[in-house]
């Protein structure tokens, strides 16, 4: 060891007892660290075993496979061996020739039979979905089918906020969809797929996977929502306890209490209409689920029944000769965008709906299509994070959910009512029964009785919503800082900063950041100068090329719940969580590292923002502060910000995703892989 110091450490040996069921502790020893070898503690792994407990062969399943001359002559060896594998796992050999259905889910964690955690999942959204898998499997067996289950778990955008894990968030969606499709294709005899998923990336990936295997009888089962606490903050607001505590706006005791009790129940997606809940709504709007499936309370009988109904629906599709391709049409996409606008859904669906369309082989809707639909219909749903009250998602479900929203849209003459659903009915046929059906009445009565809430205060008539100042959901500002466009959830800007004519106007000094970490430090007042009212935060280099297009809810949530936050605007080439509110403008194109002019903004520049919530127009401009140069001349004379760079910790996997999705149309194309275009570019010079 030469002149290196030799450190002495002390440790206590821990060993399993002879039965392997408990721990015994050995004596403390002093050991020279430099001499520690793996074999110093091997004895704890080599306990005496009963040799008779080790089996070397087994009898195997009883009975025989129901083979036939045709099967043995015509089936592949793989299909025949698959039967051997099935009975090897304990399946009744008399039933192995039934129709095969794959139940594909995003299950995460390991639950004990009583629901207590053995190993945690990443989030509540995939914690209980195994119960849906079980219910669907049992129903398949009632139809004499053969259920299979496979799992592709998903990350939590809430858990990864502000961390390096966010660099993998959006790219994961494409990866998961590919793995799901590979699993579907790897079960050659499957007739249909029942996709169980809940949250921000797992559910869009599942929709992409089922859309991409459109020749099968596929059905989505949304994983539902967690309940809000009886007393306490919702899971959107609670993500700001760090910022509020640092700014002195809540105590340590308050932060500790609220952080503990926010998730009222252990399963389901968050209690707000963020990306997870909006994806559930969109899946139902597209006809990919049975009626009234989105946003059911996780773990409850009404939720479990949806899995059984979905198994029935997939079986029914097989019987009728229908497939997912019969469901996913241009009209289905239109209905999805229409209902997205009506509920005030997450802007992340502007990435996911085009991706689902691409997977289904349909024309991808662009910003112009979303703008046109949002001009048709104002938001008329009052659900978190939008106001005026901000009801949790379970109340939206109880008020009637997607069918209630669709019913109002049909009354407006906007819904494509002949679009089909996996239930074997058109939207017209569903809605003809909806108003008088028992399910609607029971749910709405329960909302009144349990929470004292009038269902028509959650899902209003469009006329009432308009009279209360609710506006259309999404606006696409352009300007000299975003010549290719940008996105803002205009309906969720704090109404107190909107002028009487319905227009948001802000002219402020730029505070430029090239990392979210530095921006949140300034918001918390941990760096100088701290963010203050009137500032315009310009966060650059956080698009797909920069870091995988991270979600910046850590920033937007802090601005929402800090006392001065509504007086601060944010402009970025990153994206936002579905629960984000306020004057937050994202998806700026081109992104800074693709040569976008947003890369040239400097601290102190004057930024002019206008969002017309009536006409859904707006701009984000750098303006000249004197008469010596125009804004265009200022931008033309500058180079990119000196600190702008690709995120040093950006994973290689994400760099690959960024390059591939760029060939598929980038952010405005849904961040998808256009294989033909990628191949064309790779072979162009060969």
Indicate the low-confidence ranges by residue numbers. 1-38
Strand adjacency order, main sheet: 9-10-14-13-12-11-15-16
Please summarize the sheet with the most strands. Answer: 8 strands, mixed
The share of residues in helices is 25-40%
Number of helices: 26
The beta-strand count equals 16
Mean pLDDT: 92
- Please give the domain count: 4
Task: Walk me through what this model shows.
InterPro entries: Dehydratase_YjhG/YagF (IPR017798), Dihydro-acid_dehy_C (IPR042096), DiOHA_6PGluconate_deHydtase_CS (IPR020558), ILV_EDD_C (IPR056740), ILV_EDD_N (IPR000581), IlvD/EDD_N (IPR037237). Residues 123-429 form the Dihydroxy-acid/6-phosphogluconate dehydratase N-terminal domain. By secondary structure, the chain is of the alpha/beta class. The protein has four domains: 95-228 and 264-464, no CATH class; 231-263, no CATH class; 474-650, IlvD/EDD C-terminal domain-like (Glucose Oxidase, domain 1); 661-685, no CATH class. Helix content is 36%, strand content 14%. The model is unreliable at 1-38 (pLDDT under 50).
């Amino acid at each position: 060891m030469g002149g290196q110091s030799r450190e002495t450490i002390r440790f206590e040996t821990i060993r399993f007892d002879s039965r392997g069921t408990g721990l015994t502790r050995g004596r403390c020893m002093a050991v020279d660290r430099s001499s520690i070898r793996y074999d110093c503690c091997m004895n704890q792994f080599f306990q005496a075993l009963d040799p008779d407990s080790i089996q070397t062969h087994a009898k195997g399943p009883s009975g025989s496979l129901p083979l036939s001359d045709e099967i043995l002559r015509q089936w592949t060896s793989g299909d025949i061996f698959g039967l051997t594998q099935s009975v090897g796992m304990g399946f009744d050999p008399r039933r192995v020739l039934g129709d095969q259905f794959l139940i594909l889910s995003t299950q995460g964690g390991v639950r004990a039979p009583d629901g207590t955690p053995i190993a945690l999942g990443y989030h509540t959204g995939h914690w209980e979905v195994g119960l849906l898998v079980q219910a669907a499997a049992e129903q398949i067996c009632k139809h004499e089918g053969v259920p299979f289950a496979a799992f592709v778990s998903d990350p939590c955008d809430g858990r990864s906020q502000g961390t390096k894990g966010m660099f993998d968030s959006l790219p994961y969606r494409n990866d998961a969809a590919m793995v799901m499709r590979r699993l579907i294709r790897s079960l050659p005899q499957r007739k249909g797929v029942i996709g169980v998923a809940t949250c921000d990336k797992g559910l869009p990936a599942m929709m992409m996977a089922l859309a991409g295997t459109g020749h099968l009888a596929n059905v989505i089962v949304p994983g539902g929502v967690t309940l809000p606490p009886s007393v306490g903050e919702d899971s959107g607001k609670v993500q700001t306890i760090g910022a509020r505590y640092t700014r002195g706006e809540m105590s340590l005791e308050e932060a500790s209490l609220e952080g503990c009790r926010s998730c009222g129940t252990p399963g389901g997606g968050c209690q707000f209409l963020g990306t997870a809940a909006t994806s559930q709504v969109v899946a139902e709007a597209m006809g990919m689920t049975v009626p009234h499936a989105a946003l059911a309370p996780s773990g409850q009988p009404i939720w479990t029944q949806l899995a059984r109904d979905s198994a029935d629906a997939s079986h029914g599709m097989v019987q009728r000769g229908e497939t997912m391709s019969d469901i996913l049409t241009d009209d289905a996409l239109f209905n999805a965008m229409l209902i997205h606008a009506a509920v005030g859904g997450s802007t992340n669906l502007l990435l996911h709906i085009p991706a689902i369309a691409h997977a289904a082989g349909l024309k991808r809707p662009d910003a112009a299509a979303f703008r046109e639909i949002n001009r048709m219909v104002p938001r008329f749903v009052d659900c978190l994070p939008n106001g005026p009250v901000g009801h949790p998602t379970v109340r939206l479900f109880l008020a009637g959910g997607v069918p209630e929203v669709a019913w109002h849209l049909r009354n407006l003459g906007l819904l494509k009512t002949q679009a089909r659903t996996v239930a074997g009915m058109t939207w017209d046929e569903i809605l003809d029964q909806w108003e008088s059906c028992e399910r609607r009445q029971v749910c709405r009565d329960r909302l009144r009785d349990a929470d004292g809430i009038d269902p028509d205060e959650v899902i209003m008539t469009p006329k009432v919503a308009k009279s209360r100042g609710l506006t259309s959901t999404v606006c696409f500002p352009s300007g000299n800082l975003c010549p290719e466009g940008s996105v803002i959830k205009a309906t969720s800007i704090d109404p107190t900063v909107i002028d009487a004519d319905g227009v948001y106007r802000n002219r402020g000094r730029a505070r430029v950041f090239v990392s979210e970490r530095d921006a949140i430090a300034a918001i918390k007042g941990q760096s100088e100068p701290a963010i203050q009212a009137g500032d315009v935060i310009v966060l650059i280099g956080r698009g797909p090329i920069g870091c995988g297009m991270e979600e910046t809810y850590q920033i937007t949530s802090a601005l929402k719940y800090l006392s001065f936050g509504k007086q601060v605007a944010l402009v970025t080439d990153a994206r936002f969580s579905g629960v984000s509110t306020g004057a937050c403008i994202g998806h700026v194109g081109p992104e800074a590292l693709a040569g976008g002019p947003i890369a040239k903004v400097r601290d102190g520049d004057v930024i002019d923002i206008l969002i017309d919530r009536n006409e859904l127009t707006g701009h984000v401009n750098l303006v000249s502060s004197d008469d010596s140069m125009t804004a265009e001349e200022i931008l033309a004379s500058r180079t990119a910000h000196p600190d702008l760079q690709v995120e040093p910790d950006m994973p290689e996997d994400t760099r690959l995703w960024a390059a591939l999705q760029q060939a598929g149309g980038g952010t405005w194309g849904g961040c998808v892989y256009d294989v033909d275009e990628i191949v064309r570019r790779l072979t162009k010079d060969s």
